[in-house]
Input
Amino acid sequence: MNRKDLIELFKNWQVALLILLVVASVIFIYPHTEGGKLKTNIQYGLDLTDGTWLQMEFRAEVAGFETSRPVADFLTDIQKALDAELFLISDNKIEIRKYVSEPELESVFTAAGGKLTSYEQGVSRKTGDQVKEILEQKLNALGTRDAKVNPLTSLSGTTRYVRVELAGVSLSQAKEIVGKQGRFEIRIHTTANATEHVLYGDAITTVGIPSQEPPGSDRWGVSFTISEEGAAQFRDAAIKFGATTDPNNHWLDMILDDALVYSAPLSEDLAAKLQASPIRQLYASTGAGKAGLEAAKNLEIHLRAGALPVEVTVAGSGSVSAPLGEYFKTMSILAFVIAALAVGVVIFFRYRETAIVLPMILTNLSEIVILLGIAALIQQQLDLLAIAALIAVLGTGIDQLVIITDEVLHEGKVPSPHLYQKRLTRAVGIILVSAATVVIAMVPLALMDLSTLRGFALITIIGVLIGVLVTRPAYGKIIMAILSK
Output
């Protein structure tokens, strides 16, 4: 093809879009050298880099019930008997945020005038998502890189486990960061050393960063916001136990995992305001100087972790060493290269024509580059299953390009433009049906919380969509321009 033909080809919007996306993807991937090694913006999962995974189990259950009593009265008796938080998640199901065995729970329900109809260890989907957000906040606050939090939810909607993956973190560090996540509680001193419950951590809605109060002073602290319901409970407890009138003798304690992390009296200003109305915006002062700043940083982490509403225990763990991760990465790249070469050899023996084989290979590889660019942009981690999805996209992509080539060629020649367009449209129609089948098959895996399988499904779906919307139409124009010459 001469220069004029190339310019005309690049003016085609489908070809121009393909080139633009390839260039943008290379920018997103950002290959560069750092410390003598090639680096990119692509994030790798635990299969391909060193790190740790933890699978934690919720110490709670979702129970179905039947009762002839008023539901509110029945649940009140259950709550008193179990001394646990209860939440009605449907007309006949409750979430109990405390571990109780099925036989024990059955006897409690019977004593309260009801019947246990179903029992699943775990929490509701809503609570599972809440825990995910809280853990992500804490991991971000700690500066942990490449962290993934995946609640594992069953088809019934009950989340029993949450899986946390931490790249570049040892097993002992991971257990220290995540495995000890417990319950955060605010209690108020009543008389002597006795305390009463005020709030659990799920009442905390937002947490600020350490700041100076007043601004410019040497005193540090952390601001945080509680829910409207929490603010009402906080005010009621402060008034009931005399903290608004005698704050120095009724301190507030913040407790995480049964360990005291903060204790201080109400300020006189806050005590006066609470006497008049509930207050949602609170500020915990931690002291002056570097010690005050460090205490504020620790308190911020505790407050962010404090919204975790359910106790968890480590049910399983594992780690990948750096050398093993590098080995997997090398073998994955080698497998991809071999697959690409094998595809090239097969289509060369089919067509025996470089003018057909080369555009096919380049179009197919451009699809992979765009897919990697999107993965880097959305920070989708690549693990072994994701690499398998890339290889699958490579194979299905060549299949569809072969369909287009065979459909548009007529007795080894390019037909007239009108007939060519007609055959290209028919080929694209066949490809659309095939792509729709793949997407429909992958959507359930993408929507279900199945950890690494979800990444496999997402990569496959995105790859199929890129092919149908971008690379296949562009290839149709490219192959016509080349073969017509």
User: Anything to note?
Assistant: The chain has three domains: 3-47+321-483, 56-124, 184-316.
